[in-house]
Amino acid sequence: MTPVRHILYVTGTRADFGLMQSTLKRLEADPRLSVSVLVTGMHLDPAYGLTVGEIEKAGLTIAARVGIEAGTPTGALMGANVGRMLTGFVPVLQAEAPDVVLLLGDRGEMLAGAIAAIHLNIPVAHIHGGERSGTVDEPVRHAISKLSSLHLVATQDSRKRLISMGEAEADIHVVGAPGLDGLDKLPCRNRQALVADYGLDPERALGLLVYHPVLQEASAAGAHVASIVDALLAADVQVVALKPNSDAGSAGVRDRLETLASAGKLQLFTHLPRPTFVEFMAAADLMVGNSSSGIIEAATFGTPVINIGSRQNLRERNANIIDVGVDQEGIAAAIGAALAQRRYPANNVYGDGRAGERIAEVLATADLARLSAGKTNAY
Question: Domain of 197: which CATH number?
């Protein structure tokens, strides 16, 4: 009998786990695979909703919880916490001895996981490599790709970029974006029921706001989100907003949003469970901010997305994206265009909602002995 392969997934935020939950459960259901989860970062912080509870609720095995230093998010704290995570991850990987470490995206916890794994001679499989974004996320994402042995990419363009970076073609698999899996099954309430449950006016436009700070623009992040909300309110759009992630500049964004929420200008949530977040994304008249969920997932519902600023620069776009700067005049014009458009065709360049089954097949059949033998660039 072929041994069951143990896959260890590293998760640090509500966002990455929400995208991966369907895939992780699919992997766990595959008789050729077993799954455990290394939990760190924002999941363990009550200020961000203590979302480790969602991992427990999903019934997945938690291999370990690795804490980081809390505090006002700054670039220095982010960098220091990568070191703390690396120190905490190594003994977990030694004890778990996974066959593959699975990582998604471009955050510091994923970089720490890749560094720990490669020094323990454990193959790394990286999801969403080869993408562009133009901020600090891009070099971190590419660094993780260079530390990875298996690449599970969302698009053909991402595959081409990794090939140009010297990654072996045979180890790059186009699987689509895991965040699209099961999206059509997640929204349970229609718009009318959703707005009624949250005390919103069904006759007014509804906007979903998700805005995260950009490291290089951290000091201005609070002012940026205030300008966005001002433009939405001026257009008589009801605003449902999520608090930002823990990156540098998030304190300014959080403070502005909390002040506006206290004044009754918007509804603010520390965290929305994935099904509820998807319901709002599907029901909203427009989505505003700079979240990758707007770039990747919202197109499945045809929701108009106003993408603001530089955080998602150079990512592949679906037809529903309206790109603007952080000036209030440009944002106001984009809001008008989005409300006039109403809905876009539900086409999505990032996949067909079957990423999980493709990822399971790659992880179950990859030649791990060859991958563990060492990695060199393909020239």
Answer: 3.40.50.2000
Q: Alpha carbon 361 to chain centroid distance?
A: 23
Cα gap 264→100, rounded to integer Å: 48
Is residue 29 a part of any domain in this protein?
Answer: yes
d(CA 175, CA 76): 35
CA distance 149 to 152: 10
Is 35 in contact with 27 (CB distance < 8 Å)? yes
pLDDT tens, residue by residue, 303-322: 999 999 989 988 999 999 99
Torsion angle in degrees (nearest 10) through CA of 278, 284, 287, 288: -120
How remote is the C-alpha of 286 from its chain's centroid? Answer: 19
Residue length of the chain: 379
- 3-state secondary structure at position 311: coil
Q: How many domains does the chain have?
A: 2
Phi, psi of 114 (to 5 degrees): -65, -40
Residue 23 parent element (H or E): helix 14-29
pLDDT at 1: 60
State how far the Cα of 45 lies from the Cα of 368, in Å rounded to an integer.
35
Which of helix, strand or coil describes residue 277?
helix
Q: Both tokens of residue 303?
A: 């929701």
Q: Is 357 exposed, middle or buried (0-12, 13-18, 19+ CB in 10 A)?
A: middle
CB neighbourhood size of 264 (10 A)? 7
Q: How is residue 285 written in tokens?
A: 């008249």
Residue 135: predicted pLDDT: 80
* Measured CA distances, 213 to 209, 232, 368 (Å): 13, 19, 38
Structural domain for 219, as ranges = 183-341
